[in-house]
Backbone:
């Protein structure tokens, strides 16, 4: 839904589970994206925790965790959501006079709209929900309720195991062959797949060092850095402003992705496009590691038409440095608008190869996988 | 006489505020535990009359002096859900219990306590509002230590221990790095517990009597050296040793910012968790919410005043144009003034030339003429003779005051007392 369409926004507000006041000072170009005042969102949602009968507590918990930023990252969010849906299915009982298929689909849709209110869905989550709904729709009518519930929970387990966990293992095996002794690997932000690759390659005994590039406001690279150091890898830590200075030492760049689109564009954490472009300029190969369930048939040419806006206070303040606060409290000035983008789109010409669980493919082969294999997993 | 839970605040039993709040939050199945058999009977009777359709309440009786922990032990077999919300019956607040449970669930905590600011008029039992003596009675003090993000509870000490020095666990301080210790917050007695942990602690530690003084500090002290098993399995490990579960667990764990518990639990070099920890969370009631416990006579008067005054959304009554509540069947004599922030109960009669300021008058009172009632609480069926002056006092049910009695800062207890003389400051009858 485009958020500059006032009529539809008002309609959706009426259906909303909790009221979020919209941010007042928004950048004109990004008016079609939702942006809310972040201060009171969490307290509003928390105070409604018990009041809404219609919301399952597991889904509520996941929503609160998304809103508070406790769970980030495509895979983690997807797993958390699917586990919550498993609990929903386990606790579900068909009301009299309704069929399981339709009622459960309606319930899941309402939970999904609640999760969207907490935080807009990532593409991985969207694909998982589509899978889930198609599995519910394909349930044979002859099954009893308990059998149907068991089958659905089984399907969710299989999805997580095959599409996420096993896929990660395959990607790690493939990617580890691309790491040679003496390599300097660069990674940006914190991607769980890239972390697994680095740890696996280290276990295999390869000698390499890692450069972790990080950026404000989230500093996601610091958590990755801590875990890598704990395992004994030699790491360098730098911020994205220095990426062109460090790129001449780097031999390969490994990046994670939130999604890969049909024209080969990688949709990932903001800053990835910058890193990929600098790497391309230095003729360093860029490898994107992404599970196939995150592929999407959409085509996106820029980072504007679909994105996510974060809290503007995060960029106005530096956490832990109360003295660096000249931008603080200026969020309501008329001449000044804050823009905190969360995602960006990396064009396919900067990407050398995409490593997926279906193998190592060039970016132009993504629509092939979407076409050929999407049908297959809907049929399992 | 009247059990504490049924003391009237703005002519409603104080327990009704708690029940109202729980009803608003859609908690329909409650267990009310009362100490003492006749108190239980009266509470049970009142609840079934007032809440017969709206809530499903079970009243359980426990013997006196068994403490809150003992009360929970007695009803342990009734508790079946995954988490238990324990609320003290004398809490008047409009903080939604949902917020406490949301904080509890979000962190998968073992206990979440609600903390509120100390009410402005102070916690001391002694002293009217003009007292200059500010000695703080240690019995009411709380010292609360939290982490910088104000989500986790690191240290809690209640009044009795404060005569000596406060001891803080060094391991907790080292793990978290920075602890904020505050003395201006107090425990509001609304807790959310993980049921299995609560039952385990109550079973193992027989000597624990009170939740607030024994169980909660025990859980907070041992949060980094957890001796309890959560859900029957040590925390941090999956029930199945299946590799896939471990991987997905690790993905989820890596995705979130680790709290200091998780960091502490990791072995040297950040390997697999070697120490068991559990989390004690805290929810701080925001300043815009009203949250006070009825634990002293001063608090009783303050709450009465506040519920009619600033926090009047709690009382649920409609205020008249002059900002007071006068029941339609109350009769006022001529030239009688009832000021703002006052309440006059059903069937009360006031004589001529009376003045009532910032007070609560209960039902069926007979008040003579020329009576001044200021800043006081008068309960039901009280007879006040002519020419009395009552200031800052609490007059309990069925009391009789003769003519020209002046009371200042007193509490007239027990039924059927007749007061003949003037009393002042802090006398009890």
Residues:
């Amino acid at each position: 839904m485009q958020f500059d369409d006032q009529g539809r926004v008002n309609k959706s507000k009426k259906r909303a589970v909790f009221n979020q006041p919209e941010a007042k000072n928004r950048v004109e170009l990004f008016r079609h994206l939702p942006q809310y005042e972040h201060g009171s969102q969490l307290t509003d949602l928390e105070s409604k925790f018990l009041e809404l009968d219609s919301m399952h507590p597991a889904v509520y918990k996941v929503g609160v965790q998304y809103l508070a930023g406790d769970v980030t990252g495509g895979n983690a969010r997807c797993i958390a959501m699917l586990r919550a849906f498993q609990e929903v299915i386990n606790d579900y009982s068909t009301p009299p006079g309704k069929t399981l298929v339709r009622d459960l689909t309606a319930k899941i849709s309402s939970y999904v709209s609640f999760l969207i209110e907490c935080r807009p869905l990532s593409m991985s989550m969207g694909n998982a929900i589509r899978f889930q709904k198609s599995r519910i729709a394909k349930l044979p009518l002859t099954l009893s309720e308990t059998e149907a519930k068991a089958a659905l929970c089984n399907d969710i387990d299989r999805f997580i195991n095959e599409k996420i966990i096993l896929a990660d293992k395959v990607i790690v095996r493939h990617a580890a062959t691309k790491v040679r002794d003496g390599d300097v690997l660069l990674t940006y932000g914190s991607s769980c797949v890239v972390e697994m690759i680095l740890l696996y390659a280290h276990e295999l005994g390869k000698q390499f060092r890692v450069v972790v590039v990080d950026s404000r406001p989230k500093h996601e690279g610091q958590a990755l850095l801590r875990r890598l150091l704990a395992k004994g890898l030699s790491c360098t830590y730098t911020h994205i402003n220095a990426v062109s200075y460090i790129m001449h030492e780097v031999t390969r760049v490994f990046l994670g992705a939130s999604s890969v689109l049909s024209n080969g564009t990688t949709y990932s954490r903001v800053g990835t496009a910058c890193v990929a472009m600098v790497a391309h300029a230095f003729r360093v190969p860029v490898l994107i590691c992404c599970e196939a369930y995150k592929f999407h048939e959409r085509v996106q040419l820029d980072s504007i038409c679909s994105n996510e806006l974060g809290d503007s206070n995060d960029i106005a303040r530096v956490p832990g440095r109360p003295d660096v606060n000249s931008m603080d409290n200026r969020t309501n000035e008329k001449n000044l608008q804050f823009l905190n983008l969360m995602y960006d789109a990396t064009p396919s010409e900067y990407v050398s190869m995409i490593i997926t669980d279906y193998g190592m493919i060039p970016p132009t082969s993504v629509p092939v996988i979407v076409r050929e294999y999407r049908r297959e997993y809907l049929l399992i | 006489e009247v059990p504490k839970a049924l003391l009237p605040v703005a002519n409603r039993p104080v327990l009704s505020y708690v029940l109202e709040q729980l009803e608003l939050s859609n908690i329909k199945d409650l267990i009310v535990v009362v100490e003492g058999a006749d108190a239980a009977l009266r509470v049970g009777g009142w609840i079934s009359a007032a809440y017969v359709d709206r809530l499903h309440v079970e009243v359980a009786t426990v013997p006196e002096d068994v403490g809150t922990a003992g009360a929970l032990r007695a009803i342990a077999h009734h508790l079946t859900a995954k988490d238990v919300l324990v609320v003290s019956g004398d809490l008047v607040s409009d903080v939604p219990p949902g917020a406490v449970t949301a904080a509890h669930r979000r962190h998968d905590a073992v206990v979440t306590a609600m903390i509120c600011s100390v009410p402005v008029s102070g916690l001391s039992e002694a002293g009217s509002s003009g007292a200059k003596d500010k000695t703080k009675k240690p019995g009411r003090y709380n010292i609360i230590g939290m982490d910088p993000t104000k989500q986790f509870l690191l240290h809690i000490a209640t009044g009795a221990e404060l005569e000596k020095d406060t001891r803080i666990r060094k391991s907790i301080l080292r793990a978290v790095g920075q602890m904020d210790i505050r003395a201006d917050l107090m425990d509001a007695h609304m807790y959310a517990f993980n049921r299995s942990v609560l039952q385990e602690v109550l079973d193992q530690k027989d000597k624990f009597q009170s939740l607030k003084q024994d169980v909660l500090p025990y859980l907070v002290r041992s949060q980094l050296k957890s001796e309890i098993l959560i859900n029957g399995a040590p925390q941090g490990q999956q029930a199945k040793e299946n590799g896939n579960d471990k991987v997905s667990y690790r993905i989820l764990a890596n995705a979130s910012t680790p709290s200091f518990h998780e960091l502490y639990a990791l072995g040297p070099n950040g390997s697999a968790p070697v120490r068991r920890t559990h989390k004690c969370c805290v929810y701080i009631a925001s300043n815009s919410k009203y949250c006070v416990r009825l634990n002293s006579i001063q608090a009783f008067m303050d709450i009465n005043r506040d519920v009619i005054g600033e926090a009047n959304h709690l009382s649920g009554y409609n205020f008249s144009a002059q900002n007071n509540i006068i029941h339609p069947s109350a009769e006022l004599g001529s030239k009688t003034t009832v000021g703002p922030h006052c309440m006059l109960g059903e069937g009360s009669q006031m004589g001529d030339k009376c003045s009532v300021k910032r007070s609560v008058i209960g039902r069926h009172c007979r008040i003579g003429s020329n009576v001044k009632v200021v800043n006081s609480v008068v309960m039901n069926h009280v007879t006040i003779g002519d020419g009395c002056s009552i200031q800052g006092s609490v007059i309990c049910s069925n009391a009789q005051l003769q003519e020209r009695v002046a009371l200042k800062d007193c509490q007239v207890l027990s039924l059927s007392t007749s007061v003949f003389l003037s009393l002042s400051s802090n006398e009890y009858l």
The CA atoms of residues 159 and 334 of chain A lie 48 Å apart. Chain A has a mean pLDDT of 88. The beta strands of chain A are 183-188, 208-214, 234-239, 252-256, 259-260, 266-269, 286-289, 343-346, 353-356, 359-361.
